[in-house]
Amino acid sequence: MSEAPRDADRHDRFRSDDEITRLMETLPAALVRLDRDWTIAYVNANAETIYGRTREQLVGLDVWDAFPEARGTVIEQSYRKAMETGEPGTLEVYFEPLDVHFDVRIWPDAEGLTLFFHDVNDRVRAQQAIDAALREKEAAARRLADLNAIALELTAAETVADLEGIVVGRGLDVLGSDGGAVVTRDESGGWRMTISAAMGAVTQAEYGVVPYDTPLPGPWAARNDRAVLLPTRESGLAFDPAMARAYENTGRSGWAFLPLTVRDRRLGCLAVSWTDEHVVGAEEMELLEGFAAQCAQTLDRIRGREAQQAMAARAVAMSETLQRSLLSAPTQPDDLAVAVRYRPAIREAQVGGDWYDSFLTSAGVLSLVVGDITGHDQQAAAVMGQVRNLLRGVAYTLGEPPAAVLGTLDRALRDLEVRTYATVLLANVEQTPEQAAEGLRTLRWSNAGHPPPVVLRADGTTTLLDTPPNRLLGVDPDTRRDDHVVLLRPGDLVLLYTDGLVERRGIDLGLGMHWLTTTVADLAGLDHEQLCDALLDHVDGRTEDDVALLALMIGRS
Q1: Can you give the C-alpha Rg of the chain in angstroms?
Q2: Is there a contact between 92 and 74 (Cβ–Cβ < 8 Å)?
Q3: Which of 58, 257, 400, 456 has the fewest CB atoms below 10 angstroms from its CB?
Q4: Helix axes 378-398, 121-156, angle to 10 degrees
Q5: Are 208 and 290 in contact (CB under 8 A)?
Q6: Domains of the chain (ranges, CATH numbers)
């Protein structure tokens, strides 16, 4: 280091005021004063501590000689800019020689620069921890997206072979396992095991079909509707000595067997394996059980449809299965009442592309949905199931307002190649602590090309919430989507519906909307269930499209 000459008079002037000097010495930040020739004129005690050098070692040195590592960096650029322009500046920088993150405030004046250094290591490291947590969350979100994709594939599975192919083909990989099997009933009365190809042809051949009463853990779990966890080879051999052969053939040391059961119907088993011994934790077990439940629902749907095909036409059987599985009973939170109705345009079809939904998000917020997939055939119904389930998953997981949920759903449909167009109205029923005291609620909704909601106030007046709708789903996934709000009071009723209620061939839509608001006003005094029935009675035999209704009644204080 080279020794620079001191300007003693200037330094004395800088220190002449004892009060200012004491103030600078007690500052929580490190303070450094530079002359215009880049000589260090002053450092306070905090600066000595941070730099690990005394002021006697620093004052009088050229700053670039004292800290050569700063040359050519953003530090030098910021100092020189402030010196040249006379404008204050800020800088957040990591100075590697000191292993410190600094927040630097640069104050120029006629005689040089005053620099304030704040050690922000704790803040930066906290942010780094947050970033790491966010990355973990993003990884979990990616896995959730993959599981949603598998769930969409499962909803489209039409045969047991489809289900088995989806699960052993991609589903087990998404779970982070090293393969496994799907165990289902065989026509012979025993169990059929569809085993991952990675376990080898010998394993597939030896365990392809086994007797109903075999002691192997997969069929045992299916028969007894109980999960079997075998984290170690020792535990597997204790369960059944025949597992020695399975370990030898498969090369897998950790196993979990989860029954596939729906409403006491024991349909089979999901077998999941790991190369090394593996203890399934609580969180992982929840994931496995959820995936097994999806498989069970799919298997149940397929088995149900196959049984009905023997008794009725394929279209009728399929539509009845879809109706049972997709148009579920609405969630009914305290002080809120929800009624739902669905009427197909053609009685024999049972299900088209219209749907309603009511569920609680992970934050406990009631979400209401009505939607309509383009088309009026079985394909529209199948796509409706995919969109409905994906919307549920996005809304539950994201926990954001409706506009953000619909935007994410639209992009997911594009990325997962679900090629369809759909109108959807998604609404959240919210309540602040202040509103709770008065029984008030806020309805927050976003509209993707759907007919507007109608509010029937407790005093009998009606309001059409005809805010400008955004584009329907499937057109432009990156389009802007908007949220809207309206205050609801005790006794108010909100009606969501699909276009089959108001659209008639050859009649202007405006007339249909006028009819609806007038009719709803005339039906004031009916509760939410009665209102839905009355509206369907009004259009009975005259609607050319499916009709889905969802009515929300705000409880009276």
Answers
A1: 34
A2: no
A3: 400
A4: 160
A5: no
A6: 21-122 (3.30.450.20), 157-306 (3.30.450.40), 328-554 (3.60.40.10)
Q: pLDDT tens across 3-60, in order?
A: 444 554 555 555 455 666 666 776 778 899 999 999 999 999 888 888 889 989 999 9
DSSP state of 97: G
Q: Nearest to residue 361, comparing CAs of 337, 395, 327, 406?
A: 395
Give the residue carrying structure tokens 């709770």: 436
Give Cβ neighbours of residue 100 (< 8 Å, ≥ 6 apart): 50, 94, 119, 121
- Where do the H-state alpha helices sit in 374-508? 378-398, 402-415, 433-438
First and final CA of the chain: distance in angstroms?
80
Decide: 548 and 497 in contact? Cβ < 8 Å.
yes
Q: Global pTM? A: 0.46
CA distances from 404 to 463, 466, 467, 477, 520 (A): 25, 20, 17, 12, 31
Residue 231 burial (CB count, 10 A): 16
Written in H, E and C, the secondary structure of 366-386 is EEEEEEEECCCCHHHHHHHHH
Tokens of 277: 């011994």
For residue range 259-316, what is the model confidence (pLDDT) as tens digits? 999 988 899 999 999 999 999 999 899 989 998 999 999 989 888 887 777 565 445 4
